[in-house]
Amino acid sequence: MIDDRHDSAGLAIVAERRGHHRIGLVVAFQLTTGMTRVQRIVDPRNTQSALDHPIEVFAVLTTLLQDIKYAVRTLLKARGFTAAAVLTLALGMGATTAIFSVVNGVLLRPLPYPNADRLTLLWLTLPQAPAPELPFSAATFIDLRARTQAFEHLAAFRSWPFTMSANGESEVIGGTRVTPALFDALGERPLHGRALVAADDDPGAEKVVVLSNALWRRRFGADRAVLGTTLTLNGDRYTIVGVMPAGFTFPRGAELPRGLDFPVRTELWTAMALSPQQAAQRWTLNLAVIGTRKRGLTADAAQADVASAMRAIATDLRAPPPRVAGVRTMPLREQSIARVRPALLVLMVAVALVLLIACANVANLLLTRTIARQRELAIRSALGAGRGRLVRQLLAENVLMALVASGLGVLLAMWGKDAILALVPSSLPRSDDVTIDATVIALAVALALVAGCAFGLVAALYASRAQLIGSLKDGGRGSAGVIRRNFRQALVAAEVAISLVLLVGATLLIRTFVALERVDPGFRPDHALAADIVLPTPPGVSLATPHPEWNAFFTEYADRLSRQPGVVAVGASTALPLTGAWDGEGFQPASHPVPADKQRPSALTAAVSPDFFRASGMRLLRGRGFTSHDDASAPPVMIVSETMARTFWPGEDALGQRVEFAPQSPSIEIVGIVADVHTASLGEPAGASMFFAFAQRPLPFASVVVRTAGDPRAVTDMLRRELTQLHPATALSGVRTLDDIFAHSLAEQRFSMILLGGFAAAALALAVIGLYGVIAFGVAQRTREIGVRVALGARPRDVLALLMAQGARAAASGIVIGIGVALVASRALTRMLFGIGAADPLTYIGVSALLLAVAMLASYVPARRATRVEPVAALRQD
Questions:
Q1: Which pLDDT score, from 0 to 100, does residue 391 have?
Q2: Using CA atoms, how far apart are residues 376 and 394, in angstroms rounded to an integer?
Q3: CA angle 311, 317, 323 (to 5 degrees)
Q4: What is the DSSP letter of 784?
Q5: Nearest 5°: phi and psi at 171?
Q6: CA–CA dist 277, 281 (Å, integer)
Q7: Which of 533, 537, 520, 521 has its CA nearest to residue 571?
Q8: Mind listing the pLDDT tens digit for each residue in 281-320?
Q9: CA-based angle 308:311:315, to the nearest 5?
Q10: Per-residue buried b or exposed e for 44-57, using 16+ beta carbons within 10 Å of the residue's own CB
């Protein structure tokens, strides 16, 4: 076996530089074939691997080390090429790694709970319900827990904000009331102390609380002595019995259906402690339910079991079949990612395409450099270096370069991940699980190895013995040059095609975003500030029983605020537009009663104060709004949305109509009709909604809306000051403008639009750079040809047209291919679009025209330079 060393090629090059070409070749050849010849240690006929011998292993490692050292010297020598290639790859790999870190954390990583693979959420389903997934009532949950056999543990939980008072300060904490089985269902154990137990769930038991690790550290300095001490929550004293491990914040609001109003991260847990009256409530739907499927039981088997249990419950209640509630089971992991999976997969594909364009650009740079190194590689080949040795050397150089780019890419991804998460800080589920972990780093290394090997093989293809010897003879002209030129143009065409696909997707999302922004939300978001207030209310208090002091508080608070300078109107509501936190309630028109065997229709509901419509900017179309006279002593009245009036009283005047709710309850008269308001999403049609007078249906919580003449944020301190004077134990939370609510409703669309638009812009820039490089290199290679043309009488415009035609052909072929691919790929965006089709012709025409124009501009600059070639100087070039 001949083991040629770099020293032989080095001697040849040194001798050549001194002008002793033949002497250098002879000396190097003798060193290669004589002094450095290494015989195989074992007979070639021996089937035992040479690697079984230590000397041969040492030789292989020595050769590898020499290849790496030589690769480092070569890359450092070509600083311009190395910097351009490394930075291009680093940007592509960094973007890919950052997006993959999000995809890995949200879609791929298991949930951070010991029983994650068996955790299942259960939801009620009702015909004509305003939402496909409804929470349970207490009575239905208790019945189902007693009848189902599919779950080891079944637990209920509901959002319950707490006002925590300590050291003279009040703070609203996102809490959850749970049945103690929740911790067993999740398989979690406290870091300190104990979890809730069954005895804590008795209505008369001592009130206890379990803290999150973050709350324990933030408010109590991570002091273990807090166990056993008391804490004031909503005016009641609770004993701290446990602290959960770091990172445990279940439930996390973004992972559950919209409208349940769970906090982004739960910070404390208390027992449900249902009173007998609450446990008997059948149609107050306010409990989310989670269970741990029994080991070995499939999801389908669990679904069948709970469906059977619900039919048995309906039989006991003698409910008519159409009114029987169904149950839908959903794995917790699937529930948490279902809403964002399409967008994340689209972004992952998009960033992978950007990486492909970056690799194509680096491949073009590499081909240029390989052609420039033809003489060096040809000398090494002539001296006896085998093709395998040249391939190994080129692989070492390119893998090393790709690994350096990968390391820089990981550093960029660490910054990029945080920037990506900042775009949707609360609406992205499992954002706490996104991190640069071993899986993400392994992907970066794998990308580097694949890219490096691919680049090395491409370079080796042009460094073959036949091509290199031919290059010594004719300098790379002829058919080989044509093949190389065609290959480079094919790479550019592929870049243009990929850029078109990304630009089409980004344009469709941009037009969707613009269309959503133009949708009338049903309210005026400008000059209005909203803040949430939760009055201290012990868990045993039934919200179904009106308490006059709740209405008195919000009425007095609104009066205080309305007297402040710069305040135009003040109102309160139990639900705000575009938040999704609306209740649903079944009803029937008194004039058109629903048959007993049919399911009653339902609509979304909110209780509002008299001036809420003016404060929020909702339009009263007909009738009247609520007044101070619509109190608990007056006949109940309601206001309905335009859609509800049109749907349930077609061809009639809804004003004066009466609506029935619970049996034996008085019907309620409709006194006003307001314009439709979007309750959860601008992309969904506004449904039927009903508004009750807050004084007739008071609750201990509401969102206060203040409309101002100037900047609404300027009154924030005033809101807090007036609240402290009126009710010191209560705190404001969720302070934001209605503009913020409107913008937040578009957060997911904005997230996808910005990222895909950024990737499309990067792809376009890379494609332009690639096209410019191909034309510029072509000009440099064809200088002699251009000189001949000019000498024979070719005009500058003819030369310009000839070279620009080269760029036009590459761009046109890429556009044609890209349109075909985009027509297929854009179907994946269908669910993300609004007001526009995936095959919108205007989008395709505009993007194609833009790409063609940019390609022509990129071709014009180097082509224009070619028109200044001097014929005599060009003909003198060898």
A1: 76
A2: 13
A3: 65
A4: H
A5: -145, 135
A6: 7
A7: 533
A8: 877 778 999 999 999 999 999 999 999 998 888 887 766 5
A9: 140
A10: eeeeeebeeeeebe
Alpha carbons 348 and 351: distance in angstroms, whole number = 5
Contact of 50 with 42, CB cutoff 8 Å: yes
Contact 773, 566 (CB under 8 A): no
- Residue 303: exposed, middle, or buried by beta-carbon count in 10 A (0-12, 13-18, 19+)? middle
Q: Looking at the DSSP assignment, which residues form a beta bridge with residue 638? A: 670, 692
Burial class from Cβ neighbours inside 10 Å (0-12, 13-18, 19+) for residue 157 reads buried
Task: Tell me the per-residue pLDDT of 155-167, one tens digit each, with 9 for 90 and over.
Answer: 999 988 888 876 6
CB 511 within 8 A of CB 836: yes
How far is CA 490 from each of CA 101, 143, 424, 858, 862, rounded to the nearest angstrom? 32, 67, 39, 16, 19
Report which of residues 240 and 799 the model is more confident about: 240
Please give the average per-residue pLDDT across 764-792, as a whole number.
Answer: 74
Beta strands in 92-247 (DSSP E): 119-125, 151-159, 162-166, 169-173, 175-178, 192-193, 208-211, 230-233, 236-243
38 pLDDT exceeds 50?
Answer: no
CB-based burial, 530-566: b 16+ in 10 Å, e otherwise: bbbbbbbbebeeebeeebeebbebbbebbebbeeeee
What are the DSSP E strand ranges found in 469-615? 528-534, 567-573, 583-586, 588-589, 602-608
Backbone angles phi, psi at 538, to 5 degrees: -60, 150
Q: Where are the beta strands (DSSP E) in 443-593?
A: 528-534, 567-573, 583-586, 588-589
Which of 806, 801, 821, 812 lies closest to 864 in space, CA to CA?
801
Single out the residue of 441, 431, 423, 436 nearest to residue 112, CA to CA.
Answer: 431
Give the residue with greater pLDDT, 130 vs 629: 629
pLDDT value at 123 more than 60? yes
Dihedral angle sign, alpha carbons of residues 602, 607, 611, 612: negative
Give dist(CA 253, CA 742) in Å, integer: 19
CA 306 to each of CA 145, 150, 289, 337, 587: distance values in angstroms, whole numbers, following the listed order? 9, 7, 12, 23, 27
Distance CA 317, CA 333 (A): 33
What band does 772 get if pLDDT is binned at 50, 70 and 90?
confident
Our separate counts of H helices and E strands in the chain read 26, 24
> Given CA atoms 668, 674, 680, 681 in this order, what sign does their dihedral have?
positive
Contacts for 824 with CB less than 8 Å, ≥ 6 apart = none
Contact between 764 and 499 under an 8 Å Cβ cutoff? The reply is yes
Both tokens of 74, joined, read: 């070569």
Read off the tokens for 25. 């070749």
Using DSSP's 3-state secondary structure scheme, residue 443 falls into helix
- Outline where 532-662 has alpha helix (H): 548-562, 612-616, 642-648
Q: Which two tokens stand for residue 56?
A: 């041969």
More confident residue, 798 or 779: 798
Residue 62 token pair: 């020595």
- Whole-prediction pTM: 0.79
C-alpha 106/C-alpha 101 separation (Å) is: 8
Q: Reduced to 3 states, what is the DSSP secondary structure of residue 194?
A: coil
What is the Cα 841 distance to its own chain's centre? Answer: 28
Flag whether pLDDT at 122 surpasses 50: yes
pLDDT of residue 646: 93
What is the C-alpha separation between 410 and 704, in angstroms, rounded? 45
3-class DSSP assignment, residue 166: strand
Residue 467 burial class via C-beta count within 10 angstroms: exposed 0-12, middle 13-18, buried 19 and up:
buried
Among all chains, which residue has been given the structure tokens 């419509």? Answer: 613
User: Roughly how many angstroms between the first and final C-alpha of the chain, as a whole number?
Assistant: 39
Q: Using CB atoms within 10 A of its CB, is residue 121 exposed (0-12), middle (13-18) or buried (19+)?
A: buried
Q: Angle between the 465-474 and 374-382 helix axes, to the nearest 10 degrees? A: 120
